[in-house]
Amino acid sequence: MGLRSALIGLAVAALAAAPGVANAPPPLVVLWNGAAAGMSVDQVYALFPGSTAATGQTLEDGALEALSLDATIDGAPADALFFFRGKTLDAVVVERRNLQRDLRAQNLAEAARLVSAATAQYGRPSRCIQRRDIAAVDCAWRARGLNIAVAYHDFGGGSPALSILYRAAV
Predict the structure, then answer these.
(1) Which of 18, 124, 162, 166 is spaced 20 to 30 A from 59 at the CA atom?
(2) Alpha-carbon distance 62 to 57, whole Å?
(3) What are the per-10-residue average pLDDT scores of the chain (170 residues)?
(4) CA dist 10 → 3, 22, 105 (Å)
């Protein structure tokens, strides 16, 4: 290697090491139980080897479900659904399983407990609508690089749904 090549190599190394010059990757935003925004399907599967391939659900903005995993919400059975944009993890939705449609008051109480727990963990929600009269809860937080949302809906008393969404804040 010539002197000129060695000097260029040293200059490049010095620039890369200088503060503010190197393009360091942004810090990982952990969405749920170690799964971080930007992970590949293979990385999420390695983190949760019990997960299974899943397709069919799409978030409103186009992120596609690729993996599913047994989980819990407040000790009750749930499914963790991993949504990817392109080839990277974009969001995790944890959906409560087996909500009883005839137990609206109990379901609303469970949603209220989740809102209280999220408020204790993330602070005051940026928005929170709780309408017992129409069996709807929709609350959202933004904290530590995350957007978190708790939602419960029971339109018409036939298909209650309770979920928590975790997504990196942009």
Answers:
(1) 124
(2) 9
(3) 35 39 68 97 96 90 94 94 95 94 89 96 95 90 95 83 94
(4) 11, 15, 68
